[in-house]
Amino acid sequence: MKTAIEIARDIREGKRSSEDVVKESLAIIEAQNPALNAVLGVFSNTLDRARDIDRRLAAGEDVGVLGGVPVVLKDNMLVKGERCSAGSRILENYDATYDSTITKRLRDAGAVLIGRANMDEFAMGSSTENSHYGPTKNPWDISCVPGGSSGGSAAVVAAGFVPLAFGSDTGGSIRQPASLTGIVGLKPTYGRVSRYGLMAMASSLDQIGPFARTVEDAALALSVIQGDDPLDGTTVAGADVSVPELIDRDVTGLRVGVPKEYFVEGMDERVRQNVMDAVAVFEKAGAEIVDISLPTSPYALAAYYVVMPCEVSSNLGRFDGIRYGYSSSGSTLLETYERSRGEGFGKEVQRRILLGTFALSKGYYDAYYKKALKVRTLLKRDFDEAFKQVDVIVGPTSPSVAWKLGEKFADPLAMYLSDIYTVSANLATVPAMSIPCGFVDGLPVGLQLTAKPFAESTLFRAGAFYQSATDWHNQTPG
Amino acid sequence: MLTDTDLLHIAKLARLRVEPEELPRYSEQVGSILEYVAKLQELDTEGVPELAHGAGLSNVFRVDEVISSDPDVKARIIAAFPHKEGDLLEVPAVFSDRTE
Q1: Does A246 share its domain with A305?
Q2: Which residues on chain A are in Cβ contact (under 8 Å) with B2?
Q3: A333/B93 Cβ within 8 A
Q4: A313 is a catalytic site residue
Q5: Coil, strand or helix: which one is A430?
Q6: Contact A55/A73 with Cβ under 8 angstroms?
Q7: Among A253, A284, A312, which residue terminates a domain?
C-alpha cells in the first residue's frame, strides 16, 4: 500500500496517471465498501478531475504536492454541489451550497476529492454507530467498531481505499478512531486549520486533521490545509509555520513526559504494556524520559461533557426545519420546530442538546458552563507547566482496543469514557497525534503524542522516529 | 435527577419534541451524566479566568465592507429551501393565535 507522498511522486514522474490511481480507489471502494460501510457516497466528476491533473502535468504545470492523489472527507465538510449529511437524517437530502476552506486548499494542492466518509451523527459519538446510515465496521475485525466519530475516515485509510482522509476532532474524533484502526491521526492546534465549511459541533473545540499511514503523510497534509483564513475568525494569524519536508528523526535529548494520571485503573493492562514498550523505544534511542503530572486531567472528561453539549445545543439551533434540511410541518411554528428536530435528529444528538440546554439554562449557567471554562484554564496551565519540563507527552490514545459493535451503545457514559485520554488536548487547545504502537488480540493500539501549541513539528519528529524504529504501521488488516 | 417536568421544560427550550414514553430513559441518561460532571465542583476555581481561545484571541474584526454574494451560491441556497414561493422562503406564521 503506497503513501500519499509516493503516489504523488509516481504521478509527477509519469509512472502512473491520476486517472489510473483514482479508478483503482473507486474500484476498491465498490468491492470492499459494502462490508465496511465506511463511504457514504462517491463524488461526481472525480475521473474528470483526475484527468485534468494528468492533462496539466502533461502540459508541464505544477499540480501541487498532492497532485492527483485521491482523498476522502468526513461527511461534515462542504463540497459545493455534493451531498453532505453529517450522518444525520435531518440533512439526508442536503447538497452543499459552497466549498469549505479545506476543500479549496486540498484542490489547490492537486488532491482529487473522491467521496464522503461515514460518521457519528454531527460527530457525536465514539464508535460511528450513531450514523443514521448504519455503523462503519473496523477493517481489522468487522464485528468491531472503528471508533468515532470519524470512523469512516479512519476505516478508508486502514482498509487501503485511499492513502489520506480527513476528519474532525472535538474530543478525540480523529485520534481515537486512528488508534482503533492502526493508523496515524492528527488533531492540530486549535486555530491552525480553518473550520470554514465544517459543520460546527462545539466551535471552541472542533479542529480538522488528517488520517494517514505515515507521519510524513500527515505532516504533508497539515502543510496543505493549515493557515490563517479570513473566513474563520478563530484561525491564528501567522500560524502557518512551515512543516519541514524531510522530518528530523533524531530524538536524542528529546524530553519525553509520561503523565502518571494517564495510566489509571480501568485501562487494559495489555494496552498499558504496549505504551510502556513504546516509551522504552524512545529511551533506547537517547530520549530523556521524565515522569510528569497533569493534576487536572481526572476532571477533563467532566469539563468536556459540559462545554461540548452547551456548544452543541447552541450550534444545532440552526436546524429549524425552515431554511434547509428535513422539514416536518406542524400547525404552529413551534410545532414545526419541534417535529422537524425531534424527527430529524437521532437519540444521541437529542441527548446532548437536552444536556447542553439544561446546563445553559437560568440558574445553572455558573455552576456548569462557567465552571467548566475555568477548569479548561486549569488544564491549559497543567500543560504549560509540563511543557517547561518536556518537549512531548506520551500516553495511550484509548484505554482499550476496538470493542464489539453494540457493546457500549446503550450506555452513553461508558461510551464517553473511551475519550478519557483525548479530550484534554481539545480543552487545552494543544496539538496531539495518535500513531500505531502494537496489537492486543489482533487489534491495533495507539500511542498518543501531545505537544505545546503550534509545535506539531515536535509531534512529527517523535512520530517519524518511532515509525522508523518500528513496523506497526506497515501491518495491514488481513 | 431531572423530573419529567424539568425535562419537558428543557425540551421545549431546545425546541425538541420528546415523546412521554422517552422521558424515563432521558431522565436516567442525562441524570447519570450530570452526576458524573458534578465532580467539577471538587475543584477550587476561585479567581481562575475562563478560557475562551487558547492563543488568547478576542474581538477579531474584519473590514466593514459589503461583499456581494456569489449568484451561484445564492441559487443553491434558495434551491435548498424546504418550502418556497418563487425565490422567497416560506415561513409559518410566528403569531398563530389570532382569536383576539
Answers
A1: no
A2: 358
A3: yes
A4: no
A5: coil
A6: no
A7: A253
Q: Are residues A20 and A145 in the same domain?
A: yes
The C-alpha angle with vertex A301 and arms to A297 and A359, in degrees rounded to 5, equals 130
- Ordered domains of chain B (ranges, CATH): 4-40 (1.10.20)
Is residue A49 one of the residues assigned to a domain?
yes
Distance CA A56, CA A416 (A): 48
Domains in chain A, number: 2
Q: What is the mean pLDDT of chain A?
A: 95
In a domain, A205, yes or no: yes
The reply to whether A122 falls in a domain is yes
A350 touches chain B (CB under 8 A): yes
Out of A3-7, A107-111, A415-419, which region has the weakest mean confidence (pLDDT)?
A: A415-419
Q: Are B10 and A358 in contact (CB under 8 A)?
A: yes
Residue A396 has pLDDT above 70, yes or no: yes
Please report the number of interchain residue pairs, chain A to chain B, with beta-carbon separation below 8 angstroms: 177
The per-residue b/e assignment along A445-476, b for 16 or more CB within 10 angstroms, e otherwise, is bbbbbbbbbbbbbbbbbbbbbbbeebebbeee
Nearest residue in chain A measured CA to CA from B30: A355
CB < 8 Å to A317, chain B:
15
Confidence of residue B100 (pLDDT cuts 50, 70, 90): very low
A68, pLDDT greater than 80: yes
The CATH number of whichever domain residue A159 belongs to comes to 3.90.1300.10
Long-range (24+ apart) CB contacts under 8 A made by B93-98 are: B93/A333, B94/A333, B96/A331, B96/A332, B96/A333
Residues in B touching A204 (Cβ below 8 Å): 52-53
Cell 460518521 identifies what position? A119
Burial class (CB in 10 A: 0-12, 13-18, 19+), A360: buried
A82-87 mean pLDDT: 98
A414–chain B Cβ distance below 8 A for any pair: no
For residues A345 and A121, is the Cβ–Cβ distance under 8 A?
A: yes
What is chain B's alpha carbon radius of gyration, rounded to the nearest angstrom?
A: 23
pLDDT tens column, A178-209: 999 999 999 999 999 999 999 999 999 999 99
Locus of grid cell 469539563: A303
Say what the ipTM of the complex is.
Answer: 0.93
CA distances from A204 to A195, A365, A426, B44 (A): 10, 17, 8, 23
Which residue does chain A place closest to B29, by CA atoms? A412
Instruction: State the Rg of chain A over Cα.
Output: 21
Q: Name the grid cell of B45.
A: 476555581
Measured between CB atoms, does A376 come within 8 Å of chain B? yes
Q: Does A403 touch chain B (CB under 8 A)?
A: no
Domain of A356, in residue numbers: 298-370
Same domain, A166 and A106: yes
Helices first, then strands: H and E counts in chain B:
3, 2
